[in-house]
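Example (one chain per record):
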Amino acid sequence: MTLQKAIEYVTKATEEDKNGNYAEALRLYQHGVDYFLHAIKYEAQGEKSKESIRAKCMSYLERAEQLKKHLEGGGAKKAKATADGSSGKKKKSDKKNDDAEEGSSSDEEEDADAKKLREQLDGVIVCETPNVSWDDVAGLHMAKESLKEAVILPIKFPHLFVGKRTPWRGILLYGPPGTGKSYLAKAVATEAGGSTFISASASDLLSKWLGESEKLVKGLFALARARKPTIIFLDEVDSLCSARGEGESESARRIKTEFLVQMQGVGNDNDGILVLGATNIPWGLDSAIRRRFEKRIYIPLPEAEARTYMFKLNLGSTPHIISEENFMELGQRSEGYSGADIAIVVRDALMQPVRKVQQATHFKKVSGPDRNDASITRHDFLSPCSPGDPQALETNWMTISGDDLLEPKVDMNDMIRALANCRPTVGEDDLREHVKFTESFGQEG
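Predicted structure:
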């Protein structure tokens, strides 16, 4: 149970903290906070329970920040505090001088930016693994190699990146909708073991209060630096960093300025941090933001070979009678379809057997494996058939029990019918814009 693991971590951290082993205590506090956040998101029942866990999480996170400052050489006075954040025993003469400080509320002492950030941690830190491997991403070999250079190799072989050889710190994935940009980010989160993966969107960073948005951007990067190696994934980055113009608001301009400073500003150490952006309209990005993304990789519509693989992936283990030649034909027929379009086509094809069951007026007895035990063969299933079949029985699906119904397997005709019903969503004009941008600023993925 995640909550129990969190308690175990912070208990050990408290013991190490009291014994003066601050480095080990910091590591255990950070692991404990991760598990607490996971528990808030997936296990805690009721708002009262979540609030209680969140309060503990904030307390331990505050202590971890104090230890980090101490280990870096500053904040020695704070590091002497006990694990629960309160002061240690004082002499009587010192106590009189501290009465005013002890009487002040903890909310006034706590840094406002850190508090705001902690309230949103459970929404941006991905504690669970998405379970998407590189093999699950069809095609896009150049994009995968660039991401491995930026993420996997520096973690596994840090000695390769010394001196002037440094990993990429900003990668922009752009292309038409549905081509797999966000799916690639999930693969990065899965494969980058040992890294903190932060997925942020406009809703996480924009606030209606004046000055809050840029504080959240600054806090996001501060969090990334405290937990590096870190990957910051910004989906639909154009919604945050569009081109600056005369008609935009002062608030929008300040957000972009803060992004520019944090991504590559004076005094900011971004070693061990990768900013991974995704957008459908790269030409809408501010030119200064575009420069911060050192590699700009075009994620195009899939080629025939990749489309063939996508049909197989989306069918999965669903029973079908589609041959390898049929899959290759589907890959050729689906020219202009994105990965998301193909997923919709396959979902529509998977519904075809269900529609046949609904529309059938005649069924016949067929044999098939038992659903509970595949080693047992049953001979009393009923499957849809044409009225002219010699074994046809006139009935409908309403009169057949669930255990006796056997739906037809998905076949090539189902796929072709689905292709005819589901048209591609990417237009020629969009493709021309992306090709033009790639020729000017990007590279093929």
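Caption: The chain has three domains: 1-85, 134-301+437-444, 304-425.
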